[in-house]
Amino acid sequence: MATRTPRLLLTTLRTLAGLTAAFTLLLQTGCSSVFFYPDQVTYITPDRLNLDYENVFVETPDGETLHGWWLPASSEPKGTVYFLHGNAQNISSHIMNVAWLPEKRYNVFLIDYRGYGRSTGAPDIEGTLHDAETGLRWLVDQPDVQSQPLFLLGQSLGGALGTALASEWVKRDEQPPLDGVILDGTFSGFRAIAREKLGDFWLTWPLQIPLSWTITDEYEAYERIGDISPVPVMVIHSVRDGIIPFHHGKRLYEAAEEPKTFLQTDTPHASTFVIPGYQDEVLEFMEGE
User: Fold this and answer.
1) Are 99 and 49 in contact (CB under 8 A)?
2) How far apart, in Å, are the Cα atoms of 266 and each of 5, 145, 249?
3) Within its chain, how far is the Cα of 106 from the centroid?
4) Is the backbone peptide bond immediately before 46 cis, with ω within 30 degrees of 0?
5) pTM for the full predicted model
6) Arithmetic mean of pLDDT, 16-35
7) Four-way CATH pick for 31-286: 3.30.70.1140, 3.40.50.1820, 3.20.20.70, 3.30.360.10
8) Which of 186, 188, 219, 259 could form a disulfide with 251 if both were Cys (CB 3.0 to 4.6 A apart)?
């Protein structure tokens, strides 16, 4: 017992020192890393789903190279959907969310943010916001897109990025205009969701407020979504979403201006489009029915 107590004390002190160093690093650098979990694994490619596709590589103004997939409509297109995916993995794990659209006569363009998949760099909030705009600017330069309706579909993190992008696009009167914005399982603000997630873990619970202050509040979706009007907005959120609680979707819908639509679903996070009925609801929104 004479030697065990000092060893236990030493181990405890080392653990506390490590936690202190980690918290110090978070306070110095911010905790925006809680939003990004990229990997470089190829889970599935469009050809495995019997989809035609092209690899697209786009250069960002700050020197990164982004990789995306262009999925043409299977027949005469009704429009084009720009898809911004969630915070984990890469486009090859998120493609099922939009793989159904080409058969419904919609082109799809989906892109990986910096650090995801085959895109270069490392992700952060500012960088991924620039990446979302870079992808949209590439898309609207394509001749087949300019004469067709254009929709932005953002899921989870992609919805937060898409809200900021769409609000700026509308305010600047960019051309071609967006014909609709669809937000699926999106959090209402970067700072708000960071505080909630930090509060879920006992080690970070005491620091949830000071750490969340290191997250910029310049791009909070609930503050930006009203600026998308008069472009129609559809907010989709599940009562069973275990990642982004349902109240985030309600807050976004309440903050949006008309015209707006709310679709309450009953699936796990990022699983909306496995249900054909929910696909039909989105198609009706895009087709103005």
Assistant:
1) yes
2) 53, 33, 13
3) 20
4) no
5) 0.87
6) 47
7) 3.40.50.1820
8) 188
